[in-house]
Amino acid sequence: MSFPLFSPIDDPGPSFLGTLEKVGLSPFAYGESAKFSSEVLSVPHGTTIVAFKYEDGVVMAGDRRATEGNFIAHRRIEKVFAADRYSGVAIAGAAGPAIEMVKLFQTQLEHYEKVEGVTLSLEGKANQLGQMIRANLPMAMQGLAVVPLFAGWDLIREMGRIFAYDITGGRYEEVAFQTTGSGGRDAKGTIKAGLRPTPLTRSEALHLAVSALTEASEEDSATGGPDLARGIYPVVATISVNGFERASDDEIAVISSEVFENRVGIGGGQ
Amino acid sequence: MSMPYYVAPEQVMKDRADYARKGISRGRSLISVVYDVGILVCAENPSKSLHKISEIYDRIGFAGVGKYNEFDQLRVAGIRHADTKGYAYSRDDVDARSLANVYASYLGQVFTHEMKPLEVEILVAELARNDTSKSQLFHILYDGTVMDESNFTVLGGDSEAIATRFGASFVEGMSLSDALAKAVAALAGPDRVLTADDLEVAILEDSNGRRTFKRLSSASLKELLEKS
Within an 8 Å CB–CB cutoff, is residue B54 touching chain A? Predict the structure, then answer.
């Protein structure tokens, strides 16, 4: 690996993607491969993710299933990641490019912090992610779209914030909640019904997140609900002034059991 | 056509080395010490924003003395090298030895081929996993000479005198506050007193999570200095 030293005129500065482009490792340099097929590729897709605000900040959650067409490709995939100490990113869409993008995004945030000596603002982070999604547009046109949610604690404004994206990198800030992925609509209904004028407590918020994903899993075949037999539970994380904190599997296991208990005998077993 | 004057290669190298050493000795020195659970880097630096010490990677720290713009450029290149390597391979594959080699070959290249050598000395410190005493301190000179130390090293113009002073008080496996007090005393010498405001201090320690690098704030530095 060559020594990445550049003249001041073409120095990529704190941009890690810029450095990767200079050394020929950019994940967005497709060359000819972007042109060879117009068919939609069959690769694992991640499905339902949700984010909404609660009293201390933001909750993010995602189910654990990846599907390939009508097959279940993976039961234990994770879709909610810490982007850095104060933000998280959840992914839906083609799992391969999405996980790669998360890795690039995490490295970018840390790289900026080390080079500049200060962290990016939350808006700066949200814009960076938007630029990466836009760079992925050629792949999105082939069906390998990545549609993440980004949420974090804004250290300047002292509040939790949620950002949604479209495949062109368009960035939309949400007031209270957002969901994406195939089961997103069902999850959104549950979240809308569960939010109150007074903000939810942490425990209410975790409960609502698990309920929303369970609801989605019952209506959408590509979404996996809590799997009590195998001990596979949704990934639920909170982002507050204390930073990104993933709830333990034990805690989510208890909540999942409670969610299922509520279903006993309801709707004639439907 | 006029012939250029012949200058013996020995003379060229000596002149360049003198030039580099003169530049380095204009700045203040720094000490890096392996203590019982981590690595301490303590620099005399009155500036609060122009840092001499920096994080490179999860277990790797960087420090430089001499000309600020030159060692800062090396610092950024080191971060790029480490992040690119960690991204392309794995976080586990990023190590100080290979980074020190890259730095050394670049400094050596500049020293022999460019008009002017870099007026810097740099440190690449890596905190060992599990056993702190196996940590490594790579001290790289302006001409590409690499020295690896396992206990402590001193960078800067006055390094020999400081190293002698520090060596006399050094004990293996000191606590952080002991190591810091001795480092500060050695940097100051017999005639001066250095306070928290004159210092820039950072540590690599496993208690900090995946990223072991931590800058000590002025408040925690004062507290540590009072403790000893």
Answer: yes
